[in-house]
Each structure stands twice: as structure tokens, then as C-alpha cells.
Specification:
This protein is mostly helical. The chain has 2 domains: 57 residues, no CATH class; 71 residues, no CATH class. 53% of the residues lie in helices and 4% in strands. The protein has a 3-stranded antiparallel beta sheet, with no helix packed on it. Helix 2 runs antiparallel to helix 3 and helix 2 runs parallel beside helix 5. The longest helix is centred in the last third of the chain and has 24 residues. It starts with a strand and ends with a helix.
């Protein structure tokens, strides 16, 4: 766990700068320019340990593929007659998923959002037809 540097300590990368932190992993003194944080309130790491973390830490899941999967599931449920709120929500989610699919991986699963959008439209039309017949 990183802690504040003692008075008079110098940054390992910038000897002309006073160190503000001691890396909790390797013990390196580093200044404010060198500190790396996962989020603003987290304790900082030195640049060397940050690079190691980038190589070792698992990558976060691809949320674009997740939103496309959610869009497809909503599209399937949109086929239930009379679920107009769900059908509208499905259309919105699927349009967002299609627009956000710009990266290569997200493009490869964009078909989920397109199919979800088609199913939502079919469900909306079928629901409207059933409503008119009653």
C-alpha cells in the first residue's frame, strides 16, 4: 500500500522534484507527475508497477458485446403481446448497441442488436394488430 514519502525524498525519475509518495509494491519514491491511479480516490502506484499491472491485470469485459446481447434478449421478450414498454425499451437499447458497435469485436456481434431490433419491431406490429382486433 503506497504511503506519503518522507520529507526530503527525491523522485526516482525526476531527481529535481520532491517525492510525494512511496510505492507500496516496490518502495520507489515518485512525484505527482509519476503517480498512476486506477481511479481518483485510489492510492497511487509508481510508473513501473503500473506498467506491470497493465500486463498482468485481466482486461475488463467488453460492454459493447454485453449491450448487444441484452438488446437481443429484450428483442425476444418483445414478442410477448401487450408489452409495449418493453418493446420501446428494446428498440432504444438495440439502436444504442448498433451505434456503439465501432470496434472490431463489437462489429462482429452487431448482428445481435440488429436481430433484437427486428424482433422488437415485429413484436410491436403484432401487438398493434392484436390491439386493433380487440
Amino acid at each position: 500500500m503506497s504511503k506519503p514519502a518522507p520529507a526530503g525524498a527525491q523522485c526516482a525519475a525526476h531527481p529535481e522534484s520532491d517525492a510525494t509518495w512511496v510505492c507500496g509494491r516496490c518502495g520507489t519514491f515518485f512525484c505527482a507527475l509519476c503517480e498512476r491511479r486506477v481511479r481518483p480516490e485510489a492510492l497511487p502506484m509508481c510508473p513501473t508497477c503500473w506498467e506491470l499491472r497493465q500486463k498482468v491485470a485481466p482486461k475488463p469485459p467488453n460492454t459493447k458485446a454485453t449491450i448487444q446481447t441484452v438488446g437481443l434478449v429484450l428483442g425476444v421478450f418483445s414478442l410477448i403481446p401487450g408489452c409495449f414498454a418493453l418493446q420501446v425499451a428494446s428498440i432504444i437499447v438495440n439502436i444504442i448497441a448498433i451505434v456503439r458497435a465501432k470496434e472490431p469485436f463489437a462489429r462482429s456481434v452487431r448482428w445481435r442488436a440488429i436481430l433484437g431490433l427486428l424482433l422488437s419491431c415485429v413484436g410491436l406490429v403484432l401487438g398493434g394488430v392484436l390491439l386493433i382486433r380487440q
